[in-house]
Amino acid sequence: MAIASLLKRERFYRDTAQWDLCRATFHPDATSTYINVAWYEGNVEDFLQQSARIHKGKVNIIHSSFDPVDIHVHGNRAVSEAFCLVTSALTLGTADYELASHMRLFSRLHKLSDTSGWRLLSVEASYVRDRIVTAFSRSGASEELVMTKEVQAYPKSYRYLAMVMLHRGLTPRPNLPHEDLPESVKRIADRNRAFLDGIENGLVQSTIH
Question: Are strands 118-136 and 34-37 parallel, antiparallel or unpaired?
């Protein structure tokens, strides 16, 4: 299916730092796009520019087990929902770790024309659970990973993700949608349902008629 292929390619292009190809999966008008993930909220242009500075062309963060199974189409609008596992390697002191973060990704799409096909309008993440494990234990490794009060203040659903992001100099937001706060997840689903039905809601609507 064209929509499922587009969604999977967008994730692959991002993971492999193919920024132009990733950008091409989104609506050409950046002001009509919306990205809301742990470290960023805004349009796709700025998101990809910041992603390029963070990744520097190296494959590290990988979106695997991504299967957009719930896709609904209404005319030239579509919405998608999928579970996704994001993994990332890091080194703290003398210890190597791997982060695994489970999330749900919600997307809106618009069909530009019969010839141009579908393009993404939005990607929003809801966090389910995460873990961090030692990839190879060395002397003193158990002392490298510390659950600080700053990290403990984050919701359990993405606490270890927050730990890794803080280590990398990023600032994850403490109020992200997550499974321990079901109403926050429902708000995303409700907005996408309203978009599919053509109900104006103030987000990525200006050029979608």
Answer: parallel
